[in-house]
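Q: I'm a student working through a structural biology exercise. My instructor gave each of us a protein and asked us to get a predicted structure, then write a short paragraph describing it. Mine is ABC transporter domain-containing protein. I'm not confident about reading structure output yet, so if you can add a plain explanation after the tokens, that would really help. Here is the sequence I was given:
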Amino acid sequence: MYGLPQTTFYSNDGPGNAEVSKVVETLVNNPGFGTRCMTGDPIPKLPCSSAGSDWFTPPVDSSITDIFLQGNWSMANPSPSCQCSTPKRTIMLPDCSPGAGGLPPPQRIQNTTDTLLDLTGRNMTDFLVKTFENTGKTRLGGLSVGGVNSQVRMSEAAIEASFRDLRELISPFQDNVTHQILQNAEVLLKKLGTRDNVKVWFYNQAWHGMASFLSVANNAILRGNLPAGTDPRSYGISVSNHPLNLTKAQLSYAAIATTSTDVVVSICVIFAMSFIPASFVLFLIQERVNKAKHLQFVSGVNPAVYWLANFAWDMCNYIVPCLIVIVIFLCFQQKAYVSPPNLPALILLLVMYGWSITPMMYPASFIFSVPSTAYVVLTCINLFIGINGSIATFVMELINDDNVSRINDIVKQVLLIFPHFCLGRGLIDMAKNQAMATLFSSFGEDRFQDPLSWDMVGKNLCAMSIQGAVMFTVTILIQYKFFCKPRLVSGKSLSGEEKEDVDVARERERVHGGGAESDLLRICDLTKVYSRRSTPAVDRLCVGVPPAECFGLLGINGAGKTTTFKMLTGDIPVSGGEAFLNGYRTWDTVPQFDAIDELLTGREHLELYARLRGVPEKEVAKVAEWGVQKLGLVKYSNKSAGTYSGGNKRKLSTAIALIGCPPVVFLDEPTTGMDPKARRFLWDCILSVIKEGRSVILTSHSMEECEALCTRMAIMVNGAFKCLGSIQHLKSRFGDGYTVTVRVGGSPPALKPVEDFVQQGFPGSVLKEKHHNTLQYQLPYTEGALAHIFSQFTRHQQRLQVEDYSVSQTTLDQVFVNFARQQHAEEEDARTFDNAVDTSDELPLQAVGTREEHLKQV
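A: Happy to help. First, here is the predicted structure for ABC transporter domain-containing protein. I'll explain a few features afterward.
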């Protein structure tokens, strides 16, 4: 029961007693202690040799022998003493000096393989106490045979004489009943008065030691009293242990107490598995913030395919730590989790947890804009729900109260909506089930429940399978903005309060009248009104962009040009109007660019988007090489994009935009931050796109850039077009006339005659600058003014000693500044218009950062 071999002992306290000798004989020789070596081997799988060894005394060191040869030892003080606990020093076991307990007693190896010590004539108490530290855990008990009962005060003759005298006293009143009582009492006292007895010694921490060695004593007495010639190996008394059945409450409490450590294990698993799914949203948030996700959608990726691919990849990543957890359980051989019936349930719990928790994290990618913040928040939520839910329900099971039990049952059903709880509670239920089965197996009953049954982890697995499907569907619905339908918000039109410019009105009539049907891009009454604003951010824009044209869109911050770009690229919904690209509506199909993944190289970017845009696989490498060569990225093509300078990132964005030969390219301040050489290089690329017959929509703060690239442009003020036409047309219509610069000769130069000449010959002229020999005038624009200026200065050049003069138109910068003065919005309003989140479409907690210039492409 307690392992083999063991050490036992006996003592013959009545060596002169024949009956005692017979009992001792059965203990020392066959069949020995108990019933193991009886005929027929009644206890299988336990060794029993044919005969034991001879008696021997183990040798000891001579110094130990000298102690007992030189000392004055007696039965009361048979060996060196031991030191026990003192007020200053507390010890668990006696601290014994060498030789404590005396010299080793004679001993032999029994046929039961146990070691039998002969303690006859020894102070047994002294020996057992002082040698416990060395042999106590294998010495579970022994017997003393033939001891004298010190409590016996009367002999049998004295008992008979006493009862005889008692009968004489009560003889007048004695009847049959009284006679029988006295006779039974006499027999009882005679038996109680037995002087020779068998004393059983047992180790009280071996719970079954007392019953076992009591059985040994009974077997010895039985065999010692058998008739002569009887084989003692054929007789024995076997003992069976039948504990009292525990109540259901006691069994449940025992199982819960056993599973307390397993609760800690489940909490550790929940803790570890809470970090993994939270990390899956990091890249999703980054892709949404830098518009890479939007770019993929408009490059041909179906939103459902996008999320399905992310889910498949995340599950592959999840399987790795899942396998590590299973291997750890296998290494520690936790029977509650890795036994053959329990291992499939453990694997299913971990896999289904990944299936359900991964899509549950996805909606957070629409809310957060900082990946690290999302990771911390989601991890804390996972830990809070998983740990607190599992611990709370487990603690409530420990409380023996019907109301608490009912509440606990309800809580466990409600918390099944969380995968974290399903995993933690499933692990606890498996441990509890194994503990109950182990308890009942000790009583010979099989109470093990199938771990995959509904009452065990079956309901948890079912709940997690539903959760995964539901949350993935919710993610797809959020992506399609099923829960956030766009609202058309009415606003007060500003363009209706003022007379529209004739060129803008003419373009509106052309678009409405069908004259722009052949244009690549056609915008018709495009309007955007943000919530809680009285005026529209974009007010009924109408324009058509034909092939091979670069259309410039100018305006200060807050004019509405960025909002217009966002609507055209599908970033935000429109409040009214339409926009078409080759006859197709554009706000949900036109991509937004500048979505660069810092971990990919430039070449990998181009290959990725070439595949997404349908370039045949055999042509992908050629197309990527073309983009690298076209934009001058050969030196950097195999380096990660995160190491690129701002100018090279613009080049890479341009190359991505040109992949697939899009008919219309949107450029939002593409050269900002570039050096002059790189800027000129990008201009050449854009001009080559225009020569190929494609259209470009451009915004820029550089008037030089607009004059170099734009064939037509419009200036936006307060969300509406204030002018529209070619650059020369805008200068002619909205410029401040001509600028005349005159340089006068002579020493000192005679400037007064020139000033009088200009004042008389050009009414309305304004002197802008006056230096040593240079005058600069602003002349008003009139019909034929340019010819008149040249004729007058040529005629009087010699008389006025004019060395040279120049006539130029007003610059585009001056035209832009004149219109910019009409922008009434404050700086804060400007930021709101350009960067505000449209509350009709975006999630309420979504944060949108300040947008830098972007490269966009259809």
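A: Here are two points you could use in your paragraph. Residues 7-149+195-234 form one domain. Confidence is low (pLDDT under 50) at residues 586-593, 825-858. It's a good idea to check both against the output above yourself.
Q: Great, thank you!
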